[in-house]
Request: fold
Amino acid sequence: MDDSRYARYTTLAIGRRGPGGAVLDIVMKAANGKLPTAGHAGHRELAEIWRDVGDDDSVRCAVLRGEAQGFSGGGDLGLVQDMAQDFEVRTRVWKEARDLVYNLVNCDKPVVSAIHGPAVGAGLVAGLLADIPIAARTARIVDGHTRLGVAAGDHAAIVWPLLCGLAKAKYHLLLCEPVSGEEAERLGLVALAVDEDRLLDKAFEVADRLAEGSQTAIRWTKYALNNWLRQAGPAFDTSLALEFMGFAGPDVREGVASLRERRPPRF
Reply:
């Protein structure tokens, strides 16, 4: 088993579980001791890890989780500001955002996510696009794009309408209305909701079952089912382009300022 491919990751902690280390444990690190946030390196690594998972023949399943107080705190405001000011940064992060979605959709290994606490931004993209997303009942899922002043790109258009219906998707995406883990299960946004103290045990239990199953049967079923997501590719590509066009506009500057100053935005 050669894990050298994972040595370059600095914002993700990579571990092994189960017989032969067949379950890859991917932990988004919380640099501030509170929540994992996606800066320049974190955003890139979250997009690239799924290629390595797919190329690693020793992996049968991956579990994605967040460190410390929550699953994901979203994009680092420094990264957002750089995107708003620098065309080269904006185009690079656009490609990473596209790759994050498509690399995860096309990764042949099943992915389980364990979502606790706040879940927003790039981490939420991976969390909800996981094949079996599991949330703590008390998790707080928020797509915060319109609060920031940009269109809900990332994963929203590709998966929310399919999972919870167009009316609910519009309500939560247009208003940035939070969803608890318990409500997310009711809506179909996640597969399961459990008490937080059982979250990791349940996620690893599901991952172990996937790792022990027929790999061809499981992977080919995932591939076929994900054609529902591939069909939504044009809608996703449009939403992502509109999101990144927004990063060049005036509203995102007010969105960032309001977050830094901890006040409602004045668009």
Observations:
- The first strand starts at residue 12 and ends at 17.
- The radius of gyration is 17 Å.
